[in-house]
Amino acid sequence: MFTASDFCQRGFSALLFAALQISVGFVTSVPVVFADDNLPSLEPSSPQDIILPSEDFELRQFNVNDVNEQLENENSRTEDIEFEQITTNFNSYILDIGDTLNVIVQPPPGIYRLGIGDSISVIVQRFPDLSFQATINPEGNITVPLLGDISLTGLTLKEAENKIRIGLDRYVINPIIYLSLAGQRPNLSFQAPVNQDGNVIIPQIGQLYLQGLSLEEAEVRIRAALSAITTDPVVVSLGQMRPVQITISGEVFRPGIYPANSIMPRVTDILPLAGGSTLNADLRKVQIRRQLADGSIVSRNVDLYAALQSGGTPPNLRLRDGDAVIVQRREPGTDDGYDRNLIARSTLAVPQIRVRVLNYAAGGIGTQSLPNGSTFLDVLGNVPLDTANLRDIALVRFDPEKGKAVTQRLDARKALAGDTSQNVTLQDNDVIVVGRNLIGRLNSLLSTITQPYFNVQSFIRFFENFGSGLFGGGNSN
Fold first, then answer.
1. What CATH number has the domain spanning 352-471?
2. Cys staple from 125: which of 49, 176, 217, 242, with CB 3.0 to 4.6 Å?
3. pTM score over 0.70
4. Which is more confidently placed, 462 or 219?
5. Taking 60 as the threshold, does the pLDDT of residue 282 lie above it?
6. CATH superfamily for domain 119-183
7. Which pLDDT score, from 0 to 100, does residue 247 have?
8. Class of domain 100-106+187-240
């Protein structure tokens, strides 16, 4: 048996227990079961409307949607912070062994102000015993007869003279004082490499650990160290960058590891070293991976294509030693709005393409090296047109997605007359076939091939063998 008081006490405990469960994340309807089956269980009618006790024990409505919205906002803020950290990792140059810093320490422009290490000469007329020379010590003070230690750091020569005059005026009637700069403080500027221990040597200070810091962080640390001996402004810059090697892989002409020649290179500086991007590259998704000091890997995708489209500046993302640049392959069906001809004319693509020409009338097979972005008419300039049937020309191209050769019939007369649909842009390893009989034989042979080509090399070998079989050997232009 239990009394009404027991029932109220247990019911109130149940409400508090339900509130606790919801506060730690159980935002769905959770039944509360008591040990005594005679007591009713607390089951909210809807997971969207859970009843909780307020601070003054009045019941109020608690909406799950508010909690979900708050969680989404917190997740969004977390993602923003993570993205900002990744951006900082890619946009900041991080010091490492082999870097050299230029540290410039010099008085600010304008009227000269006294600092640590300056020597002054003070002449007191009528009282030669009070005349003296002194050097401002690391605490910024000098010792003056009768006055003891006084601070002159940051004062002009005139201000320092007045300060000493006012001090001596307590002991000497109307002192006449002449203060001059006897010796200017030494220039504390220096150049320091980051040694194998990750330290730089600061004159008069000693070693300072800087490995793994950005230039901005290093400047703060160096300025703090030099504050013991100077109050002058300190500017830190990268004097010489350590050797940088970047790994380039994916859809580039020559994947490999390349040294970067420029200070803090960009992706657009690196791609030409690897021969440029291939025809299948997707310059909208160029990934850069970097290993941080703690061993973790961060990555960023950069869109180089957007800058080509707009004529703007490519992403100003700086690379450092050990970075990996991965040029992604373009996925099938993602060509909408992707102008491969625009890329071919840029410095981001393979600079030269090789086009093979099989000419039945000329009796031979030749290879032409052309600038990337060249068109059908550029090839015709090297084909003897007087013996060629200009209306019987075919462009054969390897389609890597289909794994087979694709033939397109072209009319050279229309192309010469200005028909842009016939003056197509050529690609690396295209084959131009001139002559009706030759095109017929080729189409017949291609139609009998049921196995797809393994790669573009097998495609090229096929045409070399085809040309050799027809003409008894190839020649190269």
1. 3.10.20.90
2. 176
3. no
4. 219
5. yes
6. wza like domain (3.30.1950.10)
7. 93
8. alpha beta
